[in-house]
Amino acid sequence: MNSLFWQVRSRTEIIFDQPSAWTLVCAIALVVASAFAMANGAVDLALQELPASIVDVDHPFHAVIWDVRLPRIVCGAIVGMDLALAGALLQTTVRNPLADPGILGVTAGAGVGALFVILFAPGHSEWIPWAGFAGGMLAVGTLLSFAAAKRGQAGTLRVVLSGVALQSVLFAVIALMTFIFADRAPAFAAYIVGSLNGLGWSDAGRMLLPSLLGLAAIVGIVRTLNLLLLDDSAAGGLGVHVVRSRMVAASAAALLTAAAVSAAGLIGFVGLVVPNAIRLLVGPQHGDLLPATALGGAALVVVADLVARTVLAPLELPVGALLSLVGGPYFLYLLWRKLA
Amino acid sequence: MTHVEPNVPKAHVLEAKRLHVRHPGVDRDVLRDASLSVLEGEILAIVGPNGSGKSTLLRSLGRDMEIRRGAVYLEREDLSAYPRKRLARRMARLPQDPLSPEGLTVEALVACGRSPHLGAFSSLAPADQDIVSEALDAVEIADFRTRPIESLSGGERRRAWIAMALAQEPRFLLLDEPTSALDLRHQFELLELLGRLNRERGTTIVLSIHDLAHAALVADRVAVLSRGRVYAVGTPEYVLSEETLLDVFRVRSKVELEDGVLGVKILGPGDPIRNF
Hints:
Chain A is 75% helix and 0% strand. Chain A is mainly α. In chain A, helix 4 (62-93) packs across helix 13 (286-310). The longest helix of chain A has 32 residues, at 62-93. The two termini of chain A are 14 Å apart. Chain B is an alpha/beta fold. Chain B is 31% helix and 28% strand. Chain B has helices at 54-61, 84-90, 106-112, 126-138, 154-167, 184-201, 212-218, 236-239, 242-249; strands at residues 12-21, 31-39, 43-47, 67-74, 77-78, 91-94, 172-176, 204-208, 221-226, 229-234, 251-258, 261-269. In chain B, a hairpin with a 2-residue loop joins strand 11 (251-258) and strand 12. Chain B is globular and about 60 Å long. Chain B starts with 11 loop residues before the first strand and ends in a 7-residue tail after the last strand. Classes of the chains: A mainly alpha, B alpha/beta.
């Protein structure tokens, strides 16, 4: 029996035998995606003009790039990084590749928390990520009590189904809140699929602190995460406080998710698609997995948003809808492979 | 050679005192007042029928079970208060059928065994790498070091996990039915390996095992469990008697010592078998 990872690995090894090479590939993808996203939009700019327009204050595109496109790209990159890392953390926490902040209801929990601030403390947008974190933690707590390390198919289904149930309850709460307070709530449809439309530097600034805290937590637990991949009993035998480590990892995931939700609403599937794809290339060890996942997630959202705002221009589609269009089938594929 | 002569009194280094243990969610004790002392440098085999509490006792000795009453002492220190990492440096345990993540290489798994010896942010030093290589050599799976665990056979996989335990450089090694799911040859090789570890490194080994002849082959002493209690402890010749087998396992048997090897022949059920 040979896993898909090793089939992919044995083929890609010919190109890169070092997992860190894939981190570089993801970084280059992010830079290239960002360049295209800066050059393209309602009005297109030739790529060779891009450096001049960034540096030259008098360039006709200077303002568009600095005030509109660049902050949106930065927001997209942070959102993508946060969600992809949160997905990787949750997959390790519940030891299940089907985990994703969206599918498990963590995004929806953060969405409810964020909505509370939007509706009831309108002047305090700086509270949004922290309220989202509180909501995300409620979801994570519920989830972990369900996920209690059951093996095999029963365990896989249990985690996914409890997440789906939780998510539908939280969606209902969001629907009711946006319906009752329609005068000041964000549009339900755009909020629930997530979009980067109209984001600026202040949105990026709001995500900065929770994202950095999430990253710091990851750096602190990266080796423990590798041990959590083993059996609970085996990890405990190696000196890991399994319950506490799992809680720290899940909290970091909730914080990163809340940061992303505070700017972009409930974008889904980034946390599912990116870590699973990267894992096929670099393997399950977190020192290899997480850097490439962070950059890959950032690149994916920047690319998806570029497509979302140019494919039917001047209509700007919500980027979350495009991501779900790709992520949903991928989820089904993973589920099918897991249960086959 | 740290093998001590049988008549020299040895220290009780790992002691279970009057344990009452139950599985989570079950309101019946699996261990009922079970006590057991492990001697320094010995191989102790825990045998007993299904449900007698072998695995539970072994897991209790390795602090892998919640103990309701009683206590386990490691070198006179209460195990429940023992710091996690320090414990992981003294004692390695091998679960019965451990999960391993898809895509993890043998080498990466074995390297996990070094983690109790590392600081929070330090990575494997050359000395640690050497210990990992040694562990791989000791169980003869160095050729597979870059292969994923899931591509190995059952016996190779078991050896990879044992190599991880060896990389911990433990003084105590607890193994839960290490020979289950192995073919005869691999069972024998594994017991050989444990004997070698015990002789060459002085590792104290406690294992649960089903096969009584294997227990007799590998162990200095055997503990027989019956219904959550320790029925008897002692040398294999002393404990594994026809009487014990009838009492505990409810089978008629013929036990004979031949060329220092204990032969256990099962003749039939000790009492009428119920029709299901």
